[in-house]
Amino acid sequence: QVQLVESGGGLVQAGGSLRLSCAASVRIFFGYEMGWYRQAPGKERELVASINWSGRNTYYADSVKGRFTLSRDYADNTVTVFLQMNNLKSEDTAIYYCNAYLQEPRRDYWGQGTQVTVSS
Description:
The chain is mainly beta and 120 residues long. Helix content is 3%, strand content 55%. It has one helix spanning 26-29; strands at 5-7, 10-13, 18-25, 33-39, 46-51, 58-60, 68-75, 78-85, 94-102, 107-110, 114-119. The strands form 2 sheets. Strands 2, 4, 5, 6, 9, 10 and 11 form a 7-stranded mixed sheet that branches.
């Protein structure tokens, strides 16, 4: 079974910080672009940040630039992608989903989602 194992999330006051992590098997996800999406109530899912396999290209949504940082770590045949979220705002409240994407052949996998709630 293909798995993206997420952790982190929770309830934090505005201005606070949280860190999300997403672990995946290198054997399965070699070559994939990985990142985080979020979906707030009543809104479409949006890409928050992503990094390609080489690590040379990262993307951040304008709404999180300067506040969120994506990083990646390899250990024990596992790749873990971290999303450090600082200076959180109420509008960051959403379910956050880890995503692994391969362009060719087309593959697209999702984590189970983790709730982030920012109280004002």
